[in-house]
Design goal:
single chain; 1001 residues; alpha+beta; five-stranded antiparallel beta sheet; 73 strands
Length: 1001
């Protein structure tokens, strides 16, 4: 896992700052056996409790719980030679395994080195040493020597193939490449005090502190060592009389030889055949040192201890000049002028570059702190007690030139030696000894003057508390050439700088920095923490960089990047941040002063801060850019650790994904601008959290690309991309979607089919309804036709009879006797009554055709009904010369609808009368237990038997048979009365018609 950390502290010590990482804040435990950097820049620590990887901010821990190859807890880390790409780890208590590191940062067993016999891990200078060839040649003869070689700390290696071994007054050179072992006879018998390797040379220091240097086992007689180095040799040897233990105080890190002498760390190095040294750190508060690494690029010492974890010593490249005075006012600096003798004049006193012998002014002085000038003649112009004064470079005397009423706020010297100066509300010109007021308070619209700068000949820019003004110094009338400069109307102007290429730059208090480009001000982008909102000064070095002090640290930026941004050729600007860890005591610099910073004769920059002057050489400051590779080297899905691959597939069950992002960077973390984006979600870039852990939750299925980048100068980025596929649930996969699609299509087709069938059935029902309604309409029309036919059928005869009777009555009413006329009137009455009865019956039949018609049953005497019918037919019978006989017994009754039965019998009687001529028509009735039958017998024409059959089976159609609707009506009415009809045609003449009704019990 990656361990987020907060360092124990970062105390400021003379020459370096120090940070401690231990078990209280970062490490699993405090014993560090060895350290090494890998090819990508990670620092590896071998401890008594696993292995750690450090990226400058976070630690990643490897132990038996998360790495299968680690079967033990305590490890040592052999130091690799320069140019070696791979690290090796060796369990302290196991000689059969050598572990190595893969490119994707997994620790595995090295199969080649693990099986190689005759190897020795030399802890005195941290190298693996293989001696297979030497052992085969000398193993038997020097068995005791080789036994000591394996168990002793005395061997000291040059590399994995060469070593020196001192034993019992004899020193041997072992060379595996040639398989040789050589005695160094020049020092045989000499007593060893110290031994170490530097730049490939083996140094043997004897008890007389004489140094012998060997290269490839050959004495180098021309090698000497620096005189003062002998004192350190004696001091190192005095710590421990055992030469092997004393030699352990000299460590190698692959590129450097570091000697620990009490509380001082030296770097031993060869300089023109002279063993020389450089003090890296003195008075270090670190004890129990086990291993050390010196990183020249970062100017840092990494120290592993036995009991206190890891120390990082950042060597200072900046120095602070300050007065040894506890008063804040003594060291809150602003103005400065370089004096002869490596001294600097400040408003509170004179500081020496050596930081000793400073001169602090008494409180009686009250020098202005906003504007000073060192003129071309060396004279110094300043204000004291609200007066303009001048002194010489040696500060021998101060001359009062003019009362100002306020301290100086700006002062410059022109090419013609004129002095332009200002107080808060006025601007003056001094020509020779004459002073002229150029601008008054009213001219500057009540603003306060804060700085002056002649940006081009006769073009004076005046920075105020509320905007920027330009003034033409060539104008004949004072005050006439003043005008405001648009674009910075409300800005508090702190500094106006004209660069080497004559470009103009503005620093403000609260509004950031600007470039005057193509007659307008272009605001420069902010840093990530927006510290550049307040810019005190522009210091341009010889490499083309601006150094910009702010209230929150110092920034270095390439001027060409700012130029490109102003011209629209670049979208981002890289700011390199320097804070107090580089050697000064506060990140708050002071501004709004002229000069805001100076370049001293030794090419150092000097900047005022809230606690002294900050001095540094901009050309030698080590700038460490975050250009190392970026790694996504740990992934946890639902708290389960997964192997990291460039392409990884996960299921949707992984609700929480934790990516641990790292890149080795041991400089100021504010310079590591790590950002990430996730293609597939959006294209925005977001900052990576400080602990490197990126947590993603509830990603939908799909393909994603996690890209991480770090910003570098010139709008360059270092990228790392990790591809991730979130597999869909089974119900989100293609086959299931195809199945769903098929089911949806099938369901649609089924629905369409069902709907189609439903519509077809509905259409059929509608058609059936239409047919039924059409049939009903047809039936209705037929009924209408039936009615018309019935009317014509039943009324034709009575009306004809009425017509005949009416004619007779007309012809005979004058000549006829009363008796005959009375008989005619009686017949006429009967005929009209017949028509009336017919209309009544027809009305009943019409009602019967209506929906909801109800049969009104009652007990009727059949003989009476038959008598009425015969009476109605009397006129017709007289015409046809027929005789009706009513043979129905008076005792027979029938429960039925009398009007409908009357209509049926009248139709049958009328038909019998119509087709009979001069004959008898008999109506009789018989009844028994079950039925009542009405029998009508005529003597007319015999009915067609086929027609009879059709009438009886109800297939009779009047329109097809050329007959009337009488029988159609009769059959329909009998169906309503629950009666049946039977017709028996005679052989020659006559027909017998029988109507049968069932008797209801």
């Amino acid at each position: 896992m990656l361990l987020g950390l907060t360092s124990k502290g970062q105390p400021l010590t003379k020459g370096y700052s120090i940070t401690n990482y231990n078990s209280d804040n970062a490490l699993p435990q405090n014993s560090i056996n060895s350290m090494a950097f890998d090819k990508n820049g990670f620092l590896w620590l071998a401890t008594k409790w696993g292995i750690l990887r450090f990226d400058g901010k976070n630690f990643r821990e490897y132990n038996p719980e998360n790495s299968a190859a680690l079967l033990w807890n305590e490890y040592s880390l052999p130091q690799t030679e320069p140019g070696t790409d791979r690290l090796f780890f060796k369990p302290v208590f196991d000689t059969a395994h050598i572990l190595t590191l893969t490119d994707d940062y997994q620790i595995v067993t090295d199969p080649v080195r693990s099986v190689m016999p005759h190897r020795q891990f030399v802890t005195s200078n941290n190298h693996l040493f293989f001696y297979n060839n030497i052992y085969r040649k000398y193993g038997i003869a020097y068995k005791q020597l080789f036994d000591k070689l394996v168990t002793s700390y005395a061997p000291i290696t040059v590399n994995e193939q060469q070593a020196y071994f001192y034993d019992a007054g004899v020193c041997y050179f072992l060379d595996e490449t040639t398989g040789s072992m050589k005695e160094l006879r020049e020092i045989t018998g000499h007593k060893l005090k110290l031994q170490f390797i530097t730049d490939g040379f083996y140094f043997f220091i004897d008890d007389q502190y004489r140094a012998y240097a060997y290269k490839n086992g050959i004495l180098q007689s021309n090698i000497t060592y620096a005189a003062n180095l002998g004192l350190f040799f004696r001091r190192a040897a005095a710590v421990n009389p055992d030469p092997v233990q004393a030699s352990l105080k000299t460590r190698r890190d692959g590129r450097h030889t570091l000697m620990l002498c009490n509380d001082t760390i030296l770097q031993l190095r060869m300089v023109y055949n002279v063993l020389d040294y450089k003090i890296l750190a003195a008075d270090i508060p670190v004890k129990d040192i086990k291993c050390m690494i010196y990183d020249e690029g970062y100017q840092a010492l990494y120290i592993g201890t036995i009991t206190n974890g890891l120390y990082v010593l950042k060597l200072h490249e900046f120095e602070r000049l300050f007065f040894n005075d506890t008063r804040f006012i003594a060291n809150s600096q602003s103005l400065q002028i370089e004096l002869p003798g490596s001294r600097i004049l400040t408003p509170t006193g004179i500081l020496n570059y050596s930081n000793t012998g400073h001169v602090l002014f008494p409180d009686t002085h009250s020098f202005g702190k906003q504007a000073w000038l060192q003129a071309a003649d060396g004279s110094i112009w300043l204000s004291e007690f609200d007066s303009l004064k001048r002194t010489d470079i040696h500060l021998t005397s101060f001359e009062t030139l003019k009362p100002l009423g306020h301290y100086l706020t700006g002062i410059i010297e022109r090419d013609n030696k004129d002095i332009i100066y200002s107080n808060k509300h006025q601007v003056f010109r001094r020509h020779g000894t004459a002073d002229t007021i150029l601008l008054n308070e009213s001219d500057l619209m009540q603003t306060e003057v804060q700085t002056l700068k002649e940006v081009s000949p006769n073009n004076l820019w005046i920075g105020t508390s509320a905007g920027l003004f330009t003034y033409d110094l060539s104008g004949s009338r004072e005050g006439a050439g003043l005008r405001p400069v648009g674009g910075l109307e409300k800005a508090a102007i702190q500094t106006i700088y004209v660069a080497k290429d004559s470009s103009i730059w503005i620093g403000t208090y609260g509004q950031g920095i600007y470039k005057f480009y193509k007659d307008r001000f272009i605001k420069m982008p902010m840093d990530s923490r927006k510290s550049l909102v307040t810019a005190h000064c522009f210091m341009e070095d010889r490499q083309g960089y601006f150094w910009i002090p702010t209230n929150r640290g110092l920034f270095r930026v390439a001027k060409k990047e700012l130029d490109n941004y102003a011209a629209g050729r670049q979208q981002q600007v890289y700011y390199y941040y320097v804070d107090k860890s580089y050697g000064f005591s506060t990140n708050e610099f002071n501004g709004r002063c002229t000069p805001c910073g100076i370049v001293t004769r030794d090419n150092f920059f000097s900047l005022p801060s809230l606690d002294g002057l900050v001095r540094f050489n901009p050309d030698s400051v080590h700038i460490i850019l975050p250009d190392n590779p970026i790694f996504v080297d740990l992934l946890q899905a639902n708290d389960k650790r997964l192997p990291v691959k460039n392409k990884l597939e996960l299921t949707r069950d992984s609700n929480q994904l934790v990516f641990e992002i790292s890149t080795p960077y041991f400089g100021n973390r504010f310079n590591l601008h790590l950002e990430y984006t996730i293609k597939g979600l959006n294209d925005n870039w977001y900052p990576v959290p400080d602990d490197g852990k990126l947590i993603l939750t509830n990603l939908n299925s799909g393909n994603y690309a996690l890209s991480v980048r770090s910003q570098n100068p010139d709008a360059r980025y270092t990228y790392s991309t990790f591809h991730l596929t979130i597999l869909p649930y089974w119900y989100e996969q293609v086959w299931f979607k195809c199945l769903l699609g098929g089911l949806a299509i099938g369901a649609f087709l089924l629905f369409f089919r069902l709907r189609y069938n439903y519509q077809v059935k509905r259409a059929q029902l509608l058609q059936q309804m239409v047919d039924e309604r059409t049939g009903q309409l047809s039936e209705s029309n037929k009924v209408k036709e039936l009615m018309i036919s019935a009317i014509l059928h039943d009324l034709r005869s009575p009306l004809r009879f009425l017509h005949i009777l009416a004619r007779r009555m007309y012809n005979k009413h004058k000549t006829s006797e009363d008796k005959e006329l009375s008989n005619l009137l009686s017949q006429f009455d009967n005929a009209t009554n017949e028509i009336y009865d017919f209309t009544q019956g027809f009305f009943v039949f019409t009602n019967m055709q209506k929906e909801g018609f109800v049969i009104h049953r009652q007990d009727v005497v059949l003989r009476e009904i038959v008598s009425e019918i015969i009476s109605l037919c009397e006129v017709g019978a007289h015409i046809q010369k027929n005789t009706f006989n009513n043979l129905v017994p008076s005792s027979i009754t029938l429960n039925t609808d009398a009007s409908l039965l009357n209509l049926v019998l009248r139709n049958l009687a009328d038909n019998a009368n119509k087709y009979t001529c001069g004959g008898f028509i008999t109506i009789e009735a018989v009844t028994d237990e079950f039925t009542t039958r009405i029998i009508i017998t005529d003597a007319g024409d015999t009915m067609d038997r086929e027609l009879v059959t059709r009438i009886l089976d109800k297939s009779y159609n009047p329109s097809q048979h050329g007959m009337g609707w009488g029988y159609k009506i009769i059959i329909e009415i009998l169906a309503r009365l629950q009666g049946t009809l039977n017709i028996v045609p005679g052989d020659d003449r006559g027909n017998i018609i029988t109507i049968t009704f069932e008797n209801n019990s």
